[in-house]
Write a structure and sequence with these properties.
Blueprint lengths: L2 E10 L2 E8 L2 E8 L15 E10 L3 E7 L7 E4 L11 E4 L1 E3 L7 E3 L1 H11 L5 E8 L2
C-alpha cells in the first residue's frame, strides 16, 4: 500500500502548516486549521497514521477522505487557499504565501491538488502518517 507522510512544520493560532512527502521527497504543502482539541470542523487532524480512501465529494469532486480520526468524519484533501476554506479538512497547494487580508494562505492550490492526485493515480486508498515536525 502506498504511504505518504504529512510532516507538520509549524503551527500557531492562525493555522497548521505542513508538507506531504512521498518517501523522503516533499511534493506539496498543506494548510489546516490550528489544533483545537480535535473538535469537529474546527481542528487540524491529530498526529497518527490513517487510512485514506478515494471518494467522490459533491463539493470537491474526486478526492481522498481521511478515515479513523477519533470522533471525526468527512475529512477530505481538497483545494483551497485560506484557513476559512476548510472545516477540519486538509488544503493542498504548491506554496505558502499571502492572499488579500488573510493572515495565512497557500497558493496555486489547483496545481498542488493535481500533483497530489497524480501521485495517487490508479489507487483507491493509501496510508497517511501525520507527524509533528522535527
Amino acid at each position: 500500500m502506498k504511504e505518504l507522510t504529512l510532516k507538520r512544520i509549524s503551527s500557531d493560532s492562525d493555522g497548521t502548516y505542513g508538507v506531504i512527502l512521498d518517501g523522503t521527497k516533499p511534493f506539496v504543502v498543506t494548510l489546516e486549521r490550528p489544533w483545537m482539541n480535535n473538535e469537529k470542523k474546527l481542528s487540524c487532524v491529530p498526529p497518527g497514521s490513517y487510512l485514506c480512501r478515494r471518494r467522490q465529494s459533491p463539493k470537491f469532486g474526486v478526492t481522498f477522505e481521511v478515515e479513523g480520526v477519533p470522533n471525526r468524519s468527512h475529512i477530505l484533501f481538497h483545494k483551497g487557499n485560506k484557513v476559512e476554506d476548510t472545516e477540519g479538512c486538509i488544503l493542498v497547494a504548491e506554496e505558502f504565501g499571502h492572499l488579500g487580508n488573510a493572515k495565512v494562505a497557500v497558493l496555486q492550490s489547483g496545481k498542488g491538488f493535481a500533483e497530489f492526485m497524480n501521485v495517487l493515480i490508479g489507487l483507491s486508498e493509501f496510508t497517511i502518517h501525520v507527524k509533528e515536525g522535527q
